[in-house]
Write a structure and sequence with these properties.
transmembrane, mainly alpha, membrane, transmembrane helix
């Protein structure tokens, strides 16, 4: 189970970087980048949750 959580956390971190490339940096409005912003938010939450669970299980 720990290995699966580690894989999901790493995949979320990779997808976070991919979402950062999707942002239109010339126009940072929510209207143009709403999908990218939501993707970034979800990936950040998944990475934080994964790290918390991995450190909790190691104790």
């Amino acid at each position: 189970m720990i290995k699966a959580r580690l894989i999901i956390t790493i995949a979320s971190a990779v997808l976070l970087v991919a979402w950062l490339f999707k942002v239109d940096y010339s126009d940072l409005s929510y209207k143009n980048n709403s999908t990218a912003y939501l993707g970034i938010l979800i990936m950040i939450l998944l990475v934080i949750f994964g790290i918390r669970q991995l450190t909790k299980n190691k104790k």
